[in-house]
What does this fold into?
Amino acid sequence: MADVEKKVMVEFTRDYVVDDERKGTADEESYAKGARKSLVASSAAHFVSRGAAEYAKKS
It folds into this structure.
C-alpha cells in the first residue's frame, strides 16, 4: 500500500504564479494573496520556504 502524504492548510501571503512551462498560458497555476489551499506537506513546505505562503492558523 502506498504511503499517503499528510495534507496541511496554507494561506498565500502574496500573489504567486508557478514558474513552469504553463506560466503565461491559460493553464498557468496561480494563487491570489489571501487564498487558502490544502496541500500535501511537501508542496506546502515548498511555498512556505519561498515566502509565498504561511501555514494557516485554525479558524
